[in-house]
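Appendix B. One record, verbatim.
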Amino acid sequence: MTAHDRELDILNAIEDAKRSRRSFLGGAAAAAAGVVVLGETVAHAATDPAAAGPNLAASPPPGFSPFAAPGRIVKVKKAGSLQKNKIYPVPDDAKAMLTRCLTELTGEPDLVKAVSRFVHKDDKVCVKVNGIALRNHSTNLELVIPFIEAMIASGVPAEHITVLEQYGSFLAGTRINQQNVPAGVKVTVHQNSDATMPERMIPGTGVRTKFVRALTESTAAINFSLIKDHSICGYTGCLKNMTHGCQIYPHYYHTHHASPQIALLYAQDIVKTRVRLNITDAFQVMYHGGPLDKQPQCRVPYESVFATTDPVAMDTIGTEIVEQFRAENGLKSLAAEGRPPAYIKAAGDLGLGIADRSKIQVKEVVI
């Protein structure tokens, strides 16, 4: 079987929810118990280093403290920022929106200085993009390339930057390739196989996995996510882009609406110590039919970019946006459809960010 065949098999299994409880190993009962409220036993296991095996946490370079602002989000909106195809952003607008997002978030005067608050010249950086919906709704190169260029301008060697996606077709959806990134930057796909760490039991799930080499060999990760409905877990944004897009057995972590598996995966030292910044490409929003763009009429222009260091807060806001579009278009809420993204609250309970809407601050800027 070719890699492309495996890719299609996994996509179909996920989209059709064919991974039954039998596919989820014995410990899945603990995960099911945490769908609504993360139980104390699961929470302890998720945060107990001994339960997770060898310590694979990353540390910032000596003397460097990455910028962090839990619960703070900047949203920049610009009307007319989409090209005539209403899919891809105007390059100059995308860069201007990214710049305003990060300067507002950090208080720095320009994009390069703002980026330098998140990455250091001695970091090895993994840039995780998202192209599962292919070219109709993926992380846009017009947003990613200016960020990479700013990292290089801030002193990060191009050779220390890797753009990562799961499969070749997903990467192609972003239109990012080895020819259009700055010289020296690596572009790679892991195909659910390129992992060198020992297999690790994810506490509270009963399932083992490995996180992929591009992530484990990095010291920092930049997470480029989208705002999308998900047919199984309700919503897919910052958290799931890292948890299911950076390990080799993502299909085993979709049962029980992937709650709280997404939270438990993100709580792993490999992930939570590396992600420095979350940038959400919201030039479009998919409010139903995700994650594979099955119902393109439910993919609408939104012409916004978000930036935050808090993935839980961003997923809380992203879910709110999806729910608003669903209500406006006569669809049931995610909970009413039986797929509430309960993993977001679970992630908040694990201290991975702020899920309480009353404690999240969104600064909206219109340019």
